[in-house]
Amino acid sequence: MQSYYEEHDRILVALDCIIFGFDRNGLKLLLIKRDFEPEKSNWSLMGGFLKRDESLDEAADRILYTLTGLEDVYLEQLYGFGEVDRDPVERTVSIAYYALINIREHDRELLEKYGARWFPINELPDLIFDHPQMVEAAKSRLRYRASHEPVGFELLPEKFTMPELQILYEAIYETKLDKRNFRRRILSMDVLEKTDEKQKKYSKKGAYFYTFNQEKYRAKINNGDSLVFKPIKL
């Protein structure tokens, strides 16, 4: 069959994934050393190329699983990056995604089996190509999502303390938050369930564990309630 597109340029489509994780020390980014030229042995986001028989989301899932073993995690398409000279080898457009994972559940396998490494979000090494711009765009999207939706809970274990939740929000917004106002704002949304268990690892008194009630959150949204998660700064 005659091709109606023969006169058009062929351009490669890549996918790059910004993988955020969280532990009690703050927000982190998962990076890997590139194992091929150009920029071999330099730090890079997780990436690969789109195959002819797959959608963008399917390719993002495949690449994420191949390079990290991660699946069934929060993964959202972010933005397209298409500067003409962004890749020195071939004209390539990259579709960036970002993922949110709980480090405690995946840390050992990611580091030992896949050779990846976590970096604090404010202590990143030099990254290849336009990956720094991708990271900044992902941070901005995460801040927006966290202020309107409960995506931050994707970064936490099922049970978490209020201090851990505050550390997470401080990391996302890159600012200190007033403890009393933060606690009052979060609890006023009535989507957290307090447990009878305490975490006593970091203080003698301990802090109660909470869980996020997804069903209650969905019911409130369906009822038209406005739940703004953005906390008050100091």
From TrEMBL:
Residues 12-142 form the Nudix hydrolase domain. CDD domains: NUDIX_NadM_like. Gene3D superfamilies: Nucleoside Triphosphate Pyrophosphohydrolase, Winged helix-like DNA-binding domain superfamily/Winged helix DNA-binding domain. The lineage of its organism: Bacteria, Pseudomonadati, Balneolota, Balneolia, Balneolales. It comes from the Bacteria. This is ADP-ribose pyrophosphatase YjhB, NUDIX family. PROSITE patterns: NUDIX. InterPro entries: NUDIX_hydrolase-like_dom_sf, NUDIX_hydrolase_dom, WH-like_DNA-bd_sf, WH_DNA-bd_sf, WHD_NrtR. Pfam families: NUDIX, WHD_NrtR. PANTHER family: ADP-RIBOSE PYROPHOSPHATASE, SLR1690 PROTEIN.
